[in-house]
Amino acid sequence: MTEIRTPRLLLRRWYDDDLAPLSDINADPAVMRWIGDGSVRDLDATAEEIERWEEEWDDEGFGVFAVELLASGELAGAVGLSVPEYLPELMPAVAVDWRFGTPFWGQGYASEAAHATLEFALQDRGLDRVISVDRPENRASLNVVRKLGMEPERTIGHPEYGFPLSVHAIDLTEFQA
Fold first, then answer.
1. Which run of H or of E encompasses 177?
2. 132 within 8 A of 79, measured Cβ to Cβ
3. Helices 43-60/19-26 angle, 10° precision
4. Per-residue pLDDT tens over the stretch 68-121
């Protein structure tokens, strides 16, 4: 089983017990504001999402990790690598993604987890480039992107919803692990 430890976090595969806390995160409009069309997700949709993430692990050899706080064992959110197939103009590509519950915002967890994920992409999976796709208005997410050393690449329109998406990229051969 793939696990990554950082000073404060455990990035790991998903457990059955993660469904309820992730569903709580997905039910928060503040969290989901920047994800997809901004709609919250119920328990069933969250279960389907975890299932898709686990399938991506099986298909691609990477995926989205559950992020657990080492100090308390709480599920804080999710971070990982995914193939953004919904954006064919960017393919082939691997994107780093993150989502954290509001009680865990502003504490550096997203940056810490995303940095560890980029290190995993380079050192364990041999990827040479990773992108990030974010809404330009999502200042907190773009702050994480900057901390990761990702550079602006272009702006595209979301194929289904039409709003702009900022694409940033990092050449992992230059990444400071």
1. none
2. no
3. 110
4. 999 999 999 999 999 999 999 999 999 999 999 999 999 999 999 999 999 999
**Partners of 78 in beta bridges:** 66, 99
pTM of the model: 0.94
* Residue 63 CA: distances (Å) to CA of 55, 58, 80, 81, 105: 8, 8, 6, 5, 22
Residue 111 near residue 144 (C-beta atoms within 8 A): yes
Tell me how far apart the alpha carbons of residues 74 and 170 are, in angstroms, rounded to a whole number. Answer: 30
Most distant CA pair in the chain, distance:
41
| Cα angle for residues 30, 35, 41 (degrees, 5° grid) | 75
CA gyration radius for the chain?
15
Q: How far apart are CA 151 and CA 168, in angstroms?
A: 5
Which has the closest alpha carbon to 119: 10, 6, 12? 6
Q: How far apart are CA 15 and CA 114, in angstroms?
A: 20
